[in-house]
Design brief:
By secondary structure, the chain is of the alpha+beta class. It has two domains: 68 residues, no CATH class; 93 residues, Alpha-Beta Plaits, CATH 3.30.70.1350. It has five helices and five strands, in the order H-H-H-E-E-H-E-E-H-E. The strands form two sheets. A three-stranded mixed sheet has the order 3-4-5, covered by helices on one side. The protein is elongated. The model has no long low-confidence stretch (mean pLDDT 81).
Length: 179
């Protein structure tokens, strides 16, 4: 989420919380907010303040709605290169395809699911595996970590901070390899 969107969301949430709290207090019969509000609104300068604040809240709500519907890309992408010729990016789906194709060549892996996490120091790849019952899990894990890191760094020019492997199960059935 972009910082500006986060800030606007926080401001709007605070204003909505205050407004909802005052309305709740009035609905429950607490007359003090109403007692302060009536004399405040009877002064024309204060009405102008209320109109301005209300307009800002409405514009802020419309801006947040617009940003949430139009401002997001359909898929997340990582920047590979930004040069005078233009920008080059790669989608998360393409990276996951590369990971699955790399892991498919390792015989002891029965099933694999990959998850990507973007951090400051690079990409973190989390792999959930189901392995063959005869697999040496430490050796297999190290092999898959090295292969995935090598593939992403060489083919996509993306710095991989680390590759985390979680063996979720041992599969006794022979299943088709992921594609």
């Amino acid at each position: 989420m972009q910082p500006a969107y986060r800030l606007l969301s926080a401001i709007f949430a605070i204003l909505a919380l205050i407004f909802a709290g005052v309305l709740l207090a009035l609905a429950l019969g607490w007359a003090i907010p109403l007692a302060y509000l009536q004399p405040f609104l009877s002064i024309s300068d204060n009405r102008l303040i209320v109109v301005i604040v209300s307009s800002v809240v409405i514009l802020l709500a419309l801006l947040l709605i617009t940003m949430s519907t139009h401002g997001r890309p359909r898929f997340r992408e990582l920047l590979i290169q930004d040069s005078t010729l233009g920008r080059v990016g790669i989608s998360e789906a393409a990276l996951q395809d590369m990971i699955l194709r790399t892991a498919r060549h390792i015989r002891e892996i029965r099933e694999i699911k990959s998850f990507l996490r973007h951090e400051r120091d690079g990409l973190v790849v989390v792999l959930h595996l189901k392995v063959h019952p005869d697999a040496n899990i430490p050796e297999l894990s190290q092999e898959v970590q090295l292969e995935v890191q090598k593939c992403l760094e060489e083919k996509a020019a993306i710095h991989v901070q680390n590759v985390q492997v979680l063996v979720e199960g041992v599969s006794y059935e022979h299943q088709s390899k992921p594609e």
